[in-house]
Amino acid sequence: MKVAELKKGMMLTTYNKYLFTKVSSGWLRVYKPRKKMSYTSKKNEKKNEKQIAIYLGTKKDISNTDVTWSDRFVMFENEVLAVDPPAWRYIAEMK
Fold it and tell me: Where in the chain are the domains?
């Protein structure tokens, strides 16, 4: 997805076989689970369950200056998280 196409309130999901995951330091990344990943969360491996994040806007929109490396923020699992910039290539608008 192109970052320029984002609109506030847009519902986002990942492309096939990719999953969102929260990192403990407060950011969101996208990964492709492998069959033998021992550290993969079981709740993320449920088949046919779409993960949804809501785009909130830029750093100016949410008044968060703690994160210097990301300018885009989403709400995922009731938390406001910065998005890992390379992750946008695996994120799509939910249709």
Answer: 3-93
